[in-house]
C-alpha cells in the first residue's frame, strides 16, 4: 500500500506541465510548475515545513509551543497544517481588510486569528506589526517565523524547488521565471539553478538565467511601492529573504496584463491559478518573445520553467468576476458577456 502518514509529508514534488495555448507563436518550451498541488494549496507549504523543522532543531520552537505570525494567506495555511501534525498552537494576526473567507480558512485548520485595524500606522500599538510582536513576547513558548527575514525560506527552495526543476527537466532547464514577494522562491530556486548549471557548456544551455516577475510599482522593479492589486508579490520595502544578486533580470508587469493572463490560463490551459501566476507567465512569455526576436536558435532550444505559486479559488470574487474586473477597467464593457447577458 502506498500512503503518507500525514498530509504534511506530501509537501513538494509538484509536477511540470507544458503551456501549449498561451504560447502560440513561440518556439521555446515553456513549462509551468504547479505549486497549487501542494497540500495547503500553495508554494508556501515548502517554507512553512522548513522554517518549523529548523526552529525545532535550533530549540527556538519547543514541544507545546505557539507559532505567532502576521499572515493572512498562504503562509498561514502551510504553517497551520504542519503545526497541526506536530501539536503546536498557531496564532495569526491579520488586518481587517483581509476577507472573512481567508480568516475562515485559517480557523478551519485550527489556527486562532487575531484581527487588527488596517487604518492605523505601523508604530501604533494596535497595528498588525505591534500586535504580532506583543503576542510573540507575551505568549509562553511563542516563536515567530518571520518569513520576510527567515533564511530557511530561501533554503527550502534551494533544497526542494530548485532540485525538482533540475531533475524533472533532465538538467535541460535554461531559464526560470518566478514572481517576487518575500523573495524566498526566486532567491533559493535561482541560487540552486545557478550553482548546478555554473559549468554547463554553452551548447547545452550554459548557466541558467533567473528572471524575476514583479508588479509594476513595486520596489523590485524600481517602483516606489505604489499600490497594485495582484496579491502575494511585490513589496514597498526590501526583505532580507531576498538576495537581489540572484535574479539576472526583473520584468515588471501591470495588474491588467497579469489578470488577463490569469484568466487565459484558466480558460485555455485548464489552470485555475492566482494573479501572481498570470503575472509570472506574462513575464515568461515576454522574455521568450524577446529571445526569439534577438536569437531565434537560442529560443528554439530554450526550456523556460515558470513557477505558479497558488490556485485560483481564492480569487473568484476578484480576477474571475467580470464586474470586479470592469470596475477597475481591466475588462471592456462588452468583454466577458455570456449567452445569458445577450438574451437578457
Ligand atoms: N504568489 C503568491 C500568491 C504568494 O503568496 C507569494 C508569497 N508571498 C508569492 C507569489 C511570492 O513568493 P515569495 O514570497 O517566495 O517571493
TrEMBL record:
- GO terms for biological process, alphabetical: cysteine biosynthetic process from serine; cysteine biosynthetic process via cystathionine
Q: What class of enzyme is it?
A: lyase
What does the record give as its pathway?
A: Amino-acid biosynthesis; L-cysteine biosynthesis; L-cysteine from L-homocysteine and L-serine: step 1/2
Which Gene Ontology molecular-function terms are recorded?
A: cystathionine beta-synthase activity; transferase activity, transferring alkyl or aryl (other than methyl) groups
Q: What GO cellular-component annotations does this UniProt entry give?
A: cytoplasm
Q: Which reaction does it catalyse?
A: L-homocysteine + L-serine = L,L-cystathionine + H2O
Q: State the needed cofactors, names only.
A: pyridoxal 5'-phosphate
- As recorded in UniProt, its EC number(s) are 4.2.1.22
Judging by the UniProt lineage, the source's domain of life is: Bacteria
Print the keywords alphabetically. CBS domain, Lyase, Pyridoxal phosphate
Coiled-coil regions in this chain? Answer: none
Q: Which family does it belong to?
A: Belongs to the cysteine synthase/cystathionine beta-synthase family.
Q: Spell out the protein name for this chain.
A: Cystathionine beta-synthase
Species name:
Cellulomonas fimi (strain ATCC 484 / DSM 20113 / JCM 1341 / CCUG 24087 / LMG 16345 / NBRC 15513 / NCIMB 8980 / NCTC 7547 / NRS-133)
First-to-last residue of the parent protein present: 1 to 344 of 468
Amino acid at each position: 500500500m502506498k500512503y503518507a502518514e500525514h498530509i504534511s509529508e506530501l509537501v513538494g514534488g509538484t509536477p511540470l506541465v507544458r503551456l501549449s495555448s498561451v504560447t502560440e507563436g513561440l518556439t521555446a518550451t515553456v513549462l509551468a510548475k504547479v505549486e497549487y498541488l501542494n497540500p495547503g494549496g500553495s508554494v508556501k507549504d515548502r517554507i512553512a515545513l522548513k522554517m518549523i523543522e529548523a526552529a525545532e532543531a535550533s530549540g527556538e520552537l519547543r514541544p507545546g509551543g505557539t507559532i505567532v505570525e502576521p499572515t493572512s494567506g498562504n503562509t498561514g495555511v502551510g504553517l497551520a497544517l504542519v503545526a497541526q501534525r506536530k501539536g503546536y498552537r498557531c496564532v495569526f494576526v491579520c488586518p481587517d481588510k483581509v476577507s472573512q473567507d481567508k480568516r475562515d480558512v485559517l480557523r478551519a485548520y485550527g489556527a486562532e486569528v487575531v484581527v487588527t485595524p488596517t487604518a492605523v500606522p505601523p508604530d501604533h500599538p494596535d497595528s498588525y506589526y505591534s500586535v504580532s510582536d506583543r503576542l510573540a513576547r507575551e505568549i509562553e513558548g511563542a516563536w515567530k517565523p518571520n518569513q520576510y527575514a527567515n533564511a530557511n525560506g530561501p533554503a527550502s527552495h534551494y533544497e526542494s524547488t530548485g532540485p525538482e526543476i533540475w531533475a524533472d527537466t533532465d538538467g535541460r532547464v535554461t531559464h526560470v521565471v518566478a514572481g517576487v514577494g518575500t523573495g524566498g522562491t526566486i532567491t533559493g530556486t535561482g541560487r540552486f539553478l545557478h550553482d548546478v548549471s555554473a559549468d554547463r557548456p554553452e551548447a547545452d544551455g550554459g548557466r541558467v538565467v533567473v528572471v524575476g516577475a514583479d508588479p509594476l510599482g513595486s520596489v523590485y522593479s524600481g517602483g516606489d511601492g505604489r499600490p497594485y492589486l495582484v496579491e502575494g508579490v511585490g513589496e514597498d520595502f526590501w526583505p532580507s529573504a531576498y538576495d537581489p544578486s540572484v535574479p539576472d533580470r526583473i520584468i515588471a508587469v501591470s495588474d491588467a496584463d497579469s489578470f488577463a493572463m490569469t484568466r487565459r490560463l484558466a480558460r485555455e490551459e485548464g489552470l485555475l491559478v492566482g494573479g501572481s501566476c498570470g503575472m509570472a507567465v506574462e513575464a515568461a512569455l515576454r522574455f521568450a518573445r524577446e529571445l526569439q526576436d534577438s536569437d531565434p536558435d537560442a529560443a528554439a532550444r530554450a526550456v523556460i520553467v515558470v513557477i505558479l505559486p497558488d490556485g485560483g479559488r481564492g480569487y473568484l470574487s476578484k480576477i474571475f468576476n467580470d464586474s470586479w474586473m470592469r470596475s477597475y477597467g481591466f475588462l471592456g464593457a462588452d468583454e466577458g458577456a455570456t449567452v445569458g447577458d445577450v438574451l437578457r
